[in-house]
Structures
1.
Amino acid sequence: MKNVYLLLLIMLITFGLIACQSNVDVNSSSKVEKSSYESGSYDKNYVELSKIKDNIWIHTSYENYNGIRTPSNGMLVLTSEGIVLIDTPWNNGQMKELLKLTQEVFNKEITTAIITHAHADRIGGIDTLIDNEIDVLSTSQTAKEAEKNGFATPEPKLDSNHTITIGNENFEIFYPGEGHSVDNITV
């Protein structure tokens, strides 16, 4: 029960941060405006970026799920060794668009991806990451679930409860137990 309360607290904090985010300022000279899709329009490859702070950004993509346009958020953390992606967009087309946007906006490449669980809204762009030789990390449970769900398998290099350092940033990995999925972790 203690783990459930901890998971709920983490989710509440995460949703609070997302609600407080500020959208990318798009003006006529902005590189974000030069992305392939207008902000707010629906296209299967549409991805938008929202700034949380200078080195932390949210990426949002959309998918038609049970007849409803459904958003999915992931995170970008800018480090001294490149960008760390936490969860992919829904599909490989959106992942390609996100790679293009990160290069245009930050002039940096995604070097590492962390997958939090093996549902399409978190791992759907994995083939694009692998094709671009980006390290894709997960827990062994997520790697098993990915294979079972028909996705490419991320590298099962993460333990359930530990910290990894990439560049100048530390990433705490926490497995609270089964919740949204059998393999869900928080970062």
2.
Amino acid sequence: MSMGGLLEYKIKFVMVGFATHPDWGLFVVFLSCYLIALTGNLLIIFVTMADAALHTPMYFFLRNLSFLEISYTSVTLPKILANLLSEDRTISFLGCATQMYFLLFLGGTECYLLAVMAYDRYVAICHPLHYPVLMNRRVYIGLAAASWLTNLLVLMGHIAAIFTLPFCGSNEINHFFCDVPPVMKLACGDTHRTEIAILLVALFFVLLPFTLILASYVRIISTILKMASAEGRQKTFSTCSSHLLVVTLFYGTACTMYLKPKSSHSPNSDKLIALLYSVVTPMLNPIIYSLRNKEVTGALRRLTEKNVLRINQSITIDRLVAPGLRGSRISPIEFN
């Protein structure tokens, strides 16, 4: 197969990540993961918006993260589910480029958003008295917007550089979706400059925000260790533990996938890593934040109790009113 870049938009790739088709067992597993990720992240968005006590910068960033996770899984999982049941596992040239763009765009946004969340915790713990000033509404909305907009234009050039390469031989992508390493394996000719560009972009979107996160947590841990009370140290660290778990899950897989040399990529290991950051992490994040965060669990409990009380009151009113209405008829004249 020979392609002349973006002009060859009619070319199709074939996704061969799964050995058997159809596979109902895997379909049920992936569908369950998708529904858990959607439900969990939507629940976090709803709870943090419904409870006034959670209208803070920390939970504003958490809502952004949950929206990102919903979008991230929706870029890949619907197509994966379709491929599991269909004999037609093709994806168009432009469709593959579009999927890769949004995958990298949302992943890059999450990298910087996690760095912003680490900075928020740094300000809250290391400069608590100045927190309302340093993290006012204008600042935290600006930081969130910067996380979304930083990679918008950079990635367009990045994707264009990949998909203007000549592709030779097989059009089969040994993966679940259009990710950078498996697509680059189909490219022929001199790909050295593109590989360097990919590495630089990965450093910008993965290593730079990860360095900012490390710097924030070095200061945070230093401040926590200086606290006189053991209870105070434990309570303060607990506010960061959920974020640390999410950072470890996300950056561990991202660094393994995008910062290792092309020669060390193997289809099976790449597919396993891809499942971790595209399926498992978005599913676990809401569980981590809800189970390990007392404010979120408290808000969920208050919201549940409020709705249960409202339902009970409605049932009680119906029972009190209903007997008085039995046996009585309202004439049209009385009604009017």
3.
Amino acid sequence: MKIAKSLAPVIGVLLASLAGLTFLITPYMFKAKAENVAMAVEFNCHAAAAWIALDKGLFRDEGLNITTIETFATGLELAAALTRGDIEVAWACLGPAIMAYARGVPIVIVAQTHLHGYAIVVRPGLTSINQLNG
């Protein structure tokens, strides 16, 4: 009985260590192979985050191996490539994506990457949209 009581703390530490080790190695045991993906972006400043994510390996960290990255001058060109099946993933402005979806292209919007992307910038003194006329 005395031996069992003296071993209890040791057994507790061993079990806690085993549980911790299991917790740490489980993600590596079941990590799936990265999925190959062809991606496209528009050639504008909104795609900067995609290039940064690619450079920092963020896609790879999420299990995506970006095998191809194509740039398109406009969102309409990008949406057309998506419609044809030339690309699998698009980092695109919402307008062309919604237009493609409205035309029956089976796409899913999974994330929004920016808010308030563009603005009209004017010189000081202009206070009304009517002053831009002409």
4.
Amino acid sequence: MKLRFRICTGSPASTVQKKILAVNRASFPDSGSAVFDHERRIHAWLQDDRRRVLSCLYIDLGTATVWNVCTDPSFRRQGLMSLLMKETLRAVRTLFPVLHLHVRKENKTALRAYKKLRFRVVGDSFAGEALRMSRKTI
């Protein structure tokens, strides 16, 4: 399977939006189309040679915070999130000296993966339900 990294500012094309929403809802059932409501965002995703979105995220340009990192359940545990994060870090390093993210405390798999990517815990967030993590991009 050949993977391609895609990134855009603002909202991606509507066909891609639908695919991103499907992956988002599989990971975060309560998420809606709000991921596309704000133009000051960078969207990044991995797609395969059949143009399926396998893993995606977005970055809020105002806060340099990564949100809604998720992978299609059929493609989990294959390193796609790590690949997506590495490509995203490489793509935005001239825009942000530091990137931030939040991860639910009970999501031990994601927490380990972010630590391997050199993100470090800098505090609690969301009333103690999540951890705030940061990493220098350069």
